[in-house]
Each structure stands twice: as C-alpha cells, then as structure tokens.
Amino acid sequence: MKAKATYLTFLLLAIVLVAGCVGQQANAEADEGRVVFAMKDHAEDLQSVTSIEVTVDQIMVHSESKGWITVSTEDRTYDLLQLRAQESTALLADVELEEGTYTQLRLDISKVVVTDSEGKTEAKLPSSELKIVGNLVVEENSTSTATFDFIADESLYITGNDKYILAPVVQLETRQDAEVEVKSSNTVEITGGTVTTDVKVGMDVNGNVGIGISIPADTEIDIGVDGIISIGANEEPELIEEEPSAPTAPMNVTVEMSSNGFSPSPTTIKIGGTITFKNMDVILDHWPASAMHPTHTVYPGSGIDKCGSDEQPTIFDACRGISPGNEWSFTFNSVGEWNYHDHLSTSLFGKIIVVE
Q: How far apart are the C-alpha atoms of 180 and 89, rounded to whole Å?
C-alpha cells in the first residue's frame, strides 16, 4: 500500500507539472501577433535598365528590451522592375512575433544584379545592411505589416566606367490591425489598419541610412580597385572643402550630441587633439563610435569587439550609451577624415577631420 501511495503521489505531481507547462506555453503563444513583411517598387522609367534583382537573405527587428531578433534567414530574390510593372507587392516573410513595439527594422541584402542592353552586371552596395528606424506595433491576435517600397530610379547610379551602384532609397510603411491576403503567386494585398510609420529614407556612399540621406543625382561617383565607393568632382560642397591648415586647427573641441545629431560636424582638430562628446538630451542616451555600424572598424585599430578589453582606451568607441548631461572624450592620433555615428540611433552620424 505504501508503495502504491507513493506511485500515485508522483503521478499526480507529474500531471500538475505537465499541465503547468502546457498552460505557460498557451499563454506565451497567446501573447504573439502576426507580422507580414513585404516589398514593392515605385519608380519612374529607367530606360535601358530592364531588371534589378535584389536578394534579401535576412530580416531582423529590434526592441529596446530584447535587442535584435531574427525574423527570417531565407534567401529570396525579387525583381524590383517586375514588381513595378505588375503593380504587385512581394511577400518577404509571414511570421508570429511577441507583442510589443519594435523600433528598428533591418533587411540584409546579399546581392544586386542589374540587367541592361549590355547584359547582366552585379551592382555594388555601400552597405549590405538596410537598417531603418520606425515603429512596428505587434498586438496579440492581430496582424501587423511592414512594407519596404523601393524607389529604384532614386537608388541606382552608374559610375564613370559603367559600373552600377545601388544605394537604396526606400519608403517604409508599417501598419497595425491590417487585413492581409496572401496570394498563390507569393504576393500580398494589404488593406485597412492604422499606419504607424510612413517614412522615406536613403543611403549614402558610406552606408549611413536615414531621413534626408542619399547620394545626390548629379554626383560623380566611382568604385576603386579596393572596392570602396568614392565621390568625384561633383560632390557636395561640404565634402570637398579643403582641410584647414594646421595652425588654425584646435587641439580641443566639444561636440554636442542630441536627437538632432552631432554639432558641430564636420569637426576639424589637430593630430593629438581631443574631442569631448557631451550629451545634451534630456532623455536619450547616445553612443558615439567610429563608422561603420555595427562593427565600428573604420578608425584605425577600432572595433566594437575590443570594448571591455585592455585596448578599449585606444579605440574610437564610447562602448556604452552616454547618459544625458554626461560626456566622453577621445584623443585622435591618426590623420584623416573619420566618419562616425550613434550606435543607439544609427541615423545620426558625423565626421572628424584630423590634420597635421
């Protein structure tokens, strides 16, 4: 009898544990909402260009509490001009995400192939990461959408030696409580709901993405033997401004950081000079660091992987968010023009010019 009672006790405990796990799983699933990611193209006629095939190999979203979350790693190739001609919207991913607000969306583009009268040519991207700041609100038992509307005629450039560069210009629209019909042709029709984000962003030659950023249409650009995109004679005036002579360059400068960006920028200092980055915001933290995001490796010897190591004092990287009212300083010992950005708000960026 004692053995039988013990067996029944263990059996009851097992049933309770299983029931608890099932209940927890049901609650976790109940806290998720459907999210549909889509792509289309809205462009003018590109004359001799008949196809722009874009391969997307990863989709990610970012939340303040969980960081970056991978949505899809499936390689998919889309012809932007075909989408435009058919007036269709292609399905990128149809997933379930935990409810909440996601503040950044990211497409990783691994390849772009352009077809013109001469045949197929692989285009160069300033950066394979298209990272856009915008709110994606996911609610339980509801459908949200994120549509990346590429504007091909504002994105495609041809160099002096007939090579193509694709610096994406995209209109991002997100909706909550939308109606979505997925069709057999792997296209979607999105209607209704509430628009939560409707923003147009572009990419510059350094891979920076944000509102008001792009490569001007009349800019002469080229791709060097090292694969780096450079701006030629028709660049914007601030980019071709001659460096000040060494006697006029200061040794110490304070750069103010806020939600509006870095000021002053560009900033010129003498080699061995120190720049103090001061956070003037009331709420937001800012994290100044060398380009490019997220590796921070453009300034010599820098890299986000060195944060927390013995090399941290030598890298152009705050390695943390600087809270409102506080500051961080760095001494520049390498001559050159050094682009940098805010690791926490990647649409904010600036330039440091270090002279002899």
A: 11
